Amino acid sequence: MPRKKRVKKNKQRSVLKRRIVGKKPMSKEQKEVQKKRREADKVLNEATNKKNQPKKI
Length: 57
Hints:
This protein has 57 residues and is mainly alpha-helical. The protein is built from 2 helices and no strands.
């Protein structure tokens, strides 16, 4: 018997999970917080990238 191919179900699974848990949509304040956090992460990331670049001789 041929082996059954595995189907990617990530999308469906996440949808199912959301349906089961009943996640509420993000509030405006939460969105703002998320945005600020993302900006801070970006700045931090750029700083670390500059720091970790190999030194030119």
